[in-house]
Amino acid sequence: MDDFLTGLPEATVLRDPSDLEPFLRDESHVRGVLPLAVVKPRGPSALRELVRRAKAEGFGLVPRGAGTGKAGGCVPTARTVVVDLSQWPGDIAVSAQDLSLSAPASAPLRDVKAAAEAQGLFYPPDPNSWESCALGGTLATNAGGPNACKYGMTRHWVLAVDALLEDGEIHRFGISSVKANAGPSLGQLLIGSEGVFGLIVGATLRLTPLPREHATLLLPVRRWEDLLDLPGRLCAAGYQPSAFEFFDPAVLAELRAHGPEEARRLPGEALAILEFDERGCTAESFLEGLLDLLGPMAESLELASDERQRKAIWAVRRMTSAFLKERHPGKVSEDIVVPRSRLRAFFEGLGRLGAPCVTYGHLGDGNLHVNLLAADKTDPALLERQLNGLFRLALDLGGTLSGEHGIGLAKREAFLTLSDPAHIRALRAVKRALDPCGIFNPGKVI
Ligand code: 2HG
Ligand code: ZN
User: Fold this and answer.
1) pLDDT at position 2, please?
2) Which of 30, 80, 316, 423 is 20 to 30 Å apart from 252, CA to CA?
3) Taking the complete model, does pTM exceed 0.85, yes or no?
4) What's the gap in Å between 37 CA and the centre of ligand 2?
5) pLDDT digits (tens, 9 = 90+) for 129-181
6) Do 139 and 70 share a domain, yes or no?
7) Whose CA is nearest to atom 3 of ligand 1?
8) Domain span including residue 155
9) Looking at residue 231, which CATH number applies to its domain?
């Protein structure tokens, strides 16, 4: 077993425990165990050999992008090798004619978005980590962000997937067109599978013309409950914000008291950030219609007057997760979803649950980051009850326990316990069919 990785072609292999240490974590609260090794493949022969040796020696393969995941999907479990795809080769190529972009898993998401923009095109998925994450990680986790409330999740922007399967070869699922209907989509099955069916090494993505206008609004409110019906009311009136974020009073107060300079000026008891990006959204007529709809809430509305202001608003929103983590290192952050029509019922239920928590996030699509700030100081059995109560509440309201971060290790127990058993049986049957030797990301999700 000692030399099970000797002579691996086209790969860098790390074995020294001090080199392995940084791979034990992602950006969740979960910590993995020391892997047998970290392998950085640079070509198909490395993957072919890894699969062969994983089967022969009985170790698992844990995919890793930039390690910015929020559910522990890429942290190593027992007897695994981390497959760090950061050196996987390939270029980013845009086809303006096909409105598509192909890129390797190693491509930074920020470069993918920039390559599209350079041609006047837009790749909307925008997880909070978009400036530091790798495309591969966003595909494996089906990442989402503020723009999901208009544009949907990563999976809605993937035309084709290149993935390593258990035969040791890379296969392509999908084509460079939105119309492809030859049987059920294995590509879509792989997106968001967190590497349990195979490893995604690249993809062809769908693009759309780049929005040329943005209306970015700060909407402070005196009674924060007033925000809760607004996402639904906007939609029902034909408005579709490209982002609708919010801070509850506790998060806003903490940002204002201890956050960066720009956060200290934030108004309101609670605050929403609303953004529109359709043509004409900066025209007076559009804004007047919106003011009408907002009624008295519009009194203290602030419109970002230029791109600098818009960026400053987003900078505060984007740093909120890291800011709270720094102030409350032992916190646990969740990302439940409820349909936007059930937001009010959700917060009523959350109050009844009595778990000490603060909330911010993607109000526009009902995806809420409920943070238990003192999780590390809470009795583990009580914490588990609080989290299960939160998940059950979301499920009872027709929602789910993860909107964008995935299941990984962090939510595995809850996912297995709270899901329809038929769902888990079906997923496990697929797992057995695609990964009969159990080499792909063992111990995760299912
Ligand atoms: C965000 O929306 C991210 O800021 C991170 O999804 C959320 O850390 C979190 O809870
Ligand atoms: Zn989020």
Assistant:
1) 55
2) 30
3) yes
4) 31
5) 999 999 999 999 999 999 999 999 999 999 999 999 999 999 999 999 999 99
6) no
7) 128
8) 93-209
9) 3.40.462.10
